[in-house]
Backbone:
């Protein structure tokens, strides 16, 4: 009778499993710094080449974060990006126990392009409010939101601050609009130079692009947004 021999686990995979086991047992926590490369090689009896492969894979998987000039840290748990189509970023961050913030990068009126008119069900050339905002949680840049709204539904939106920093709260309380439903799609994209700079990322950096079309209870489109979330901080939960 012959026995089937199990394949030997590569050294780099053993190191990954050891790190994951220490995280699972609470010996390593988010924010903890790992020892230097030399110390890790000595502790786990692996070569620098093997360690680099394991570190690269752990970093790609979002388990660790390498900070140039500082070291390697256990990554914070990722937040679920899809809190709900009608939940604002401001409210979502507050529900997570963090302080939401916003820096407006651009705000103006522009004419609807053919593509945007088709998306929002309006006439080509109809005036749209355009907002580009940097969204923060506890002062850390988390996302870039590019938003379009029909000016006819929110006249004067650019003339005053948002209610409590929330676009949805402003639409509800200032304009009496009732949000009814929303459609969302998500995909992974790479950050361009401007996005990486705003979010404090080093390129190449992955972003989670969430596109959302929001409707009033009447069925009329009120908002189309492209929100670029940091890929190292957010995930989408399958439903």
Residues:
């Amino acid at each position: 009778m012959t026995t089937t021999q199990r394949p030997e686990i590569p050294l780099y995979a053993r190191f990954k499993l050891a790190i994951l086991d220490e995280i699972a047992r609470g010996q390593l926590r988010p924010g903890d710094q790992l020892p230097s490369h030399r110390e890790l090689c000595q502790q786990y009896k692996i070569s620098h080449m093997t360690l680099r492969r394991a570190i690269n894979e752990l970093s790609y998987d979002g388990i660790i974060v390498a900070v140039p000039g500082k070291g390697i840290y256990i990554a914070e748990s990722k937040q679920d990006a899809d809190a709900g189509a009608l939940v604002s970023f401001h409210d979502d961050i507050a529900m997570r126990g963090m302080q939401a913030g916003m820096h407006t990068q651009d705000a103006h009126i522009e004419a609807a392009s053919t593509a945007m008119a088709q998306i929002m069900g309006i006439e080509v050339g109809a005036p749209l409010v355009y907002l580009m905002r940097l969204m923060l949680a506890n002062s850390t840049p988390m996302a870039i939101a590019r938003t379009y709204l029909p000016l006819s539904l929110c006249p004067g939106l650019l003339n005053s601050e948002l209610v409590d920093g929330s676009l949805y709260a402003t639409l509800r309380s200032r304009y009496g609009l009732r949000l009814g439903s929303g459609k969302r799609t998500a995909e992974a994209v790479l950050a361009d130079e401007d996005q990486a700079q705003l979010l404090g990322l080093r390129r190449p950096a992955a972003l989670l692009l969430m596109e959302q079309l929001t409707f009033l209870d009447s069925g009329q489109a009120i908002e189309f947004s492209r929100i670029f979330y940091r890929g190292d901080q957010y995930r989408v939960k399958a439903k």
Summary: The longest helix spans residues 11-24.
